[in-house]
Structure formats: structure tokens, C-alpha cells
Amino acid sequence: MLNERDYYYLDSIKLWEKELQNDLQTDIEKNTEKWLNKLIKEIPPHLKPSFFTNLDDGFFHLHSYIQNSKFQLEAKEQLLLKARVFNGSIQELADLKQLPIDQLHYIAASSIAKHRLYSFIQGGMTGSGGMLLWGIDLPLLVSIQLKSVQLTAMSYGYNVNVPREMMVSLQVFHAALLPKKFQYERWKKLVDDMEKEEELPFFCNETEVLTDDRIFHVFLSQTVKLVFLSLLKKKLIQGIPLLGILTGAGINYRQTKRITEFAEKYYQFRLLTEKGDLTAL
Fold first, then answer.
1. Domain spans in the chain, listed from the N-terminal domain onward
2. What pTM does this model have?
3. Tell me, what's the pLDDT at 280?
4. Are 126 and 250 within 8 A, CB to CB?
């Protein structure tokens, strides 16, 4: 049964969903989009299937590595400790669903804030560095963002160590990673899949392809970012590439904020869907 606060969050999600659906691009974004589409068309079609397969494999392995890392295991225990402050009977992640959504949001917000800060610092380092830091910028950023999605899922009582939940978290991450104009379509698919949850297999289908042509926008946007930062690096203020540092930090922070917001909206909506009939939403 949904309460007043649950409906408050539903209204917030509905408003966010409308903004996502009606997202308008600026002229700069439209011109950049045309340029990116032109570059994507130049990629030989026969190279794409193997690229997508290898990228999906990379996401699976990165997910498993992060989830079984000491850092993430400690983070899981911290989530349970915070939850027990509100309800001492909580023993495992699934028990978190017993808590009111305000308390779950509070627990999630602390983890999300940390990872936004990590991405801010990491972006600043990229903006101040050279080829080495530029080369590891995307892998580090993706790791931070994937960790944040995992912790968001766990904060709302979903154990991403379960095979099916692992696949769902990867789907959420991939949808959130895409440019905003592609996200509404992926959001609707994720919502539709919620309604079919009982039909989904317990074990994930490792042959399922997560990535497609749209992922190239992420890589090409990353290239544009690094080129821009390389230009700003030459603009020194008292010997420090301050503009590059602030720009790199700001770009990474905004991207991580967008991803964590998408992930939290998804897991909030899913939790509320399990509590009541939201077909009218």
C-alpha cells in the first residue's frame, strides 16, 4: 500500500520522466550530433558486432570485479549499518525494502554524493594531466559510475550479486550512460520490463547484447572532451591549467550526476511498483 510520501516520489518521477521525454537540444548540441552521426557512419559495419560483444564482456567483467572488491563489500556493510539505525531487525539487503522511501533515499544519497565527488576529483586530475591521465579517464570514470549504480540498487534493497539483478543494473547503467536524447526510449523499455519481471529468468542471458550504435556517441563525446581539455591545458594561470582542471571536473561531475539520478529514479519507481499498482502512472 502506498502512502503520502510514496505518492510524492511518484509525482517527482513523473515530472522527471516528462522532462526526459521533452528534452530539447541546443543548436550546439544539434550540430555536434550531426558531426557525431557522420563519424559513426564511417565505421565499417563488419567491425561493429565484435566491438559490441567485446564491450559487453568488458562491462560484465568490470561489474563482477567491482561487486566482489573489498571496497564494494565494505560499502554494502555500511549500507546495512545505516539501515539498522532506522530498523534494527534488518539483516540483508532485501530487508531494506521494509524502510520508508525517505529513509532509503537518505541512505542512497550519501553513497551517490561520494561518487559524484570522486568523479569531480578524477575529472580535475584529467584536466590537469597529460596523455596518461587522458588515456585512463574513461575507464576510471566508468568504474566510478558503475559503482554508483550498484550502490544505488543496493540502497533500495536490490542485491546486484544475483544474476538477474546484475543484468538489470547493467541495463540501467547503459541507459543512463547514453546521451540524454536516447534515454527516454531506454527508460520506457526498463519500465516495460518491470511489468514482465515474473517472466524473466533468474539467470541472466549472457548472449544478450546491451550495446548498439548509440554507444559510439559516448566514445566520440569523450574524444571531444579530451581534445577540448588539451586546448585548455595550454591556458595557464600562475603556471596551473586551472581552466582545464575546472572544466574536466565539471564535465565528469555533471555526467555522473545524470547517471546517478537516472539510476535512483529507476530503483525508486521499481520499489514503488512492487508496493502498489502504478499502471495509471
1. 69-275
2. 0.86
3. 44
4. no
